[in-house]
Design brief:
By secondary structure, the protein is of the alpha/beta class.
Amino acid sequence: MKSNKLPDIRTINKVHVLVVGDAMLDRYWYGKVERISPEAPVPVLEVSKMEDRLGGCCNAAKNIVDFGAQATVLIPLGMDKTAAELENLLTCAQISVLKCEDKDFTSTLKLRMVGYRQQLLRADFESKPSEQLIHEQTKIFASIYKNFEVILFSDYGKGALVDVQSMIKMAGDSGRQILVDPKGSDFSKYYGATVITPNVSELRNVVGTWNSEGELDVLVQNLREQYQFTHLLLTRGEDGVKLYDDEGAMMIPSLARDVYDVTGAGDTVISILATLLATGMSVREAVWWANRAAGIVVGKFGTSTVSYYEIAQEE
C-alpha cells in the first residue's frame, strides 16, 4: 500500500467525477408531537420547519463537491415540480446536470416527517422510467463518458440503471475506473466493475447467509471472481468496512465517535473513494479515508456530507 497521506486540496479541486443513477429529492418536515389525532390513533406533527436535500445519486454527487472536487450527474427526470426543485438544488450545490426528460415520469420524492429528531413516517412519490427514457440516457452516456476518468453508478433500484451493464462495458473497455453502489439480488449487471460497495444486507441478498468470518471471505472472493469485480468493499455499519481484492481481505474498524444516523453513509463512502481514486490513489489507500469520512457523517442527522477539512483533521 502507498503512503496513506491525504492529497492536498488543490489536487482534489481538479478531480471531476461522473455520477449516474437514481435522482431523488429528500424532503423533511420537522416539528413536535404533543397529542394524538382524534380522527385515528396516530400522532399529530405540528410542522415548524421544512427542508429539501439532495438524495439518491445526487447526494453522492454532493458528497464529491462538498469534499472539494467537481461532479456531473446524468439522471432521468420527469417534467414536474420535483424535477425543477432538484435541478435548483443541484445548481446551488455547483453540480453540473445532464438530464433526459419524460413528461410521464414522476421524479422521485421522499417525504420524511420528523418529530423531536425521530422519523415518524416516510411517504414516497415515484414511478419507473420508460424504455425510451433509459435509451436516451445511455445515448448521452456514450457521448460523454470518455471525458471522465472515474464513473460512479449509484443504484437505488428505481429504474435509472436498468441498462447499467452496457454503460459499464463502454467505460471499462476504455480503461475508466468504475464504482458501483449496488441494489437488488442480481450483481451480474455490474460485471467488470472496479469497485462495488454493498452493505451487509445487500450482500446477504446475493450470496445468502454465513456462519463465520472465514465463510464470508470465501463467499465474497467467489463472488468477485464470478463477476470480475477488481475490489469489493463491504460496508458494515458500526463495525466499519472490509475490503476484498486479489491481495486478500482487509478489515478497517469504524472510527465513528457517535452513531446518530446512518442515512447516506454509503453515499459518503463511495463518493470519497471515487474522488481519491481520481487523484491516483490506490483503492487500498483511499478506503481508509472513505471510512474516516463515514465515521464523521454518521454523527449527523439525515443525508449529510463531509468537507475536506473535516476529514483532514482526522489525519
